[in-house]
Amino acid sequence: MATTAHRRYAEIMRDVEELINDHIAQQKRGTQERSKLKLLVPSVGVFFTTLYLEEAFLFQDDRRKISSRRFVPPSFNDIRLILNSAQLLSLTRKAAIELVTFDGDVTLYDDGQSLTDDNPVIGKIIRLLQQGTRIGIVTAAGYTNASRYYERLHGLLDAIRDALLHGKLVEDPQVIILGGESNYLLEFDSHAENFLRYVPRETWMLDEMRKWQEEDIQSLLDVAEGALRECVKNMQLSAEILRKDRAVGIVPAAGTGKQKFTREQLEEAVLVTQQVLEVSSPGKKIPFCAFNGGNDVFVDIGDKSWGVLSCQRWFGGIAGSKTLHVGDQFLSAGANDFKARLACTTAWIASPAETVALLDELHLHSQNQQGK
User: Fold this and answer.
1) Exactly one of 103, 296, 300, 328 is catalytic; which is it?
2) Residue 30, phi-psi category: left (phi > 0), alpha (psi -120 to 50), beta (remainder)
3) Active site residue 105
4) Which of 15, 22, 78, 105 is catalytic?
5) I need a surface site. Which of 14, 145, 186, 277 has the fewest CB within 10 A?
6) Distance between CA atoms of 281 and 225, rounded to whole angstroms?
């Protein structure tokens, strides 16, 4: 039974792989609207690389024993991890990855926590830096000063400084933080306070971002604030509005302790605000991202596609096919990692532990390729 299931699952993955290859071929000719995959899945987007789904299934089946299960069919998580493996196999087979970008909460560290020095992901990131890979942390956390980012990421920043002192890294590595989705850029600098140097926005913005008028940005935030206030009123939330220069959101009201909003309340606020913005005048001029932050809801100017594109440009114009974005928000309402798919390849993880496993798998596939 297990042998039969293994063979059938592998055949299915091979069939889907061929559909994707056909779509990529049509994509290169500019006729992707005619691909078989597009007819089956009209919402399918751009593929930056081939996906080795059959090989990825064999890899994951060896670890998860998918085809050995008698009563539990392949699950959503099985498919998610197979897709991650397929993407890693493609990235390591075609050429070396030049840039890896990460979300913060739930990807590098637990929700609302910080990247402390005992986090196992730090060693994996240092290994990437030693291989010459650039690193970007593209986070919704929007601060205007380096000290706040140091509070959240001090374990990694201290580890990079220590690696430099002990000769494990020979020069300041290419590491940047893109905060507020795509609004604040800070570069690692071992000589700067908090090991981060704030880079003025006008020196790194994409040409398209320069067209965004400040008046339209503030108008969009005004509309978003109004929608969020209505949500607070209608759902009788113990929340307060937090307005920043490039974002606005609702957070638990001061003095409410460890109050937690329900997922339904948060997603209702996201969807209502998103709909209001989409039909507004400034919402048609300025890209935005409305998302559920776990116990808050925020609207940011721009989104993670702009953040990843900004990282790519900062490092000299790295292609989407040589960039990997790792994040956890690809499904929930206003999932802010979803937009990164417009800029590069992606890997969907569900916890910091999965990020560690993903980077170990990436290293394994790279080593296997070098041994051939």
Assistant:
1) 103
2) left
3) yes
4) 105
5) 145
6) 15
